[in-house]
C-alpha cells in the first residue's frame, strides 16, 4: 500500500508560500509537488476553511498564508486535511465471533490508539515556524558547507 503523502506535500507547499511575497497560484503550487492544480485547490479550500490560508481571485491572485507560521501546528494542518488515517494497519473483521480475532484486534486497537495519541501530540508541538527555521538552517549549511557536511543538489 502506497503511503499517503498529502500532509507532507501540503506542508511543503505552505513552506514555499512562506518564502514568497504575495499570492501564489494553484498552478505554481501544484508544480512544486508534481500534482494537479485541482488537487491543490481542493486541499487549500480545507486550509482556507481552517483559517490558515486566503485566496485572491483574478489577475495577480492566488493563495497566501493567513496566519503567522508560529501559530500553525502540523496538527492544525492535519486537522484541516480532514484527519486522514494515520496508519495503514487495520483489524481483520471476517469472523468477529472468533476469540483469537478478538484478542488480536484488542491488542492492535490498544497499540494503534497509543501510537495515534503520541503522533497527534507530537504534530501539535511542531509549528510551521519550526519547519521554516529548519529549512533556513539547512539552506545556510548548503551555502557554506563545513568540514564533514555532505551537500547534494536537487
Automatic annotation (TrEMBL):
The record ties this protein, via SUPFAM superfamilies, to: Winged helix' DNA-binding domain
Gene3D superfamilies the record matches? Winged helix-like DNA-binding domain superfamily/Winged helix DNA-binding domain
GO MF annotation: an example: DNA-binding transcription factor activity
Cellular component GO terms held in the UniProt record? cytosol
Q: Output the InterPro entries linked to this UniProt entry.
A: Tscrpt_reg_Rrf2 (IPR000944), WH-like_DNA-bd_sf (IPR036388), WH_DNA-bd_sf (IPR036390)
The identity of this protein, by name, is Putative transcriptional regulator
Origin species:
Bradyrhizobium oligotrophicum S58
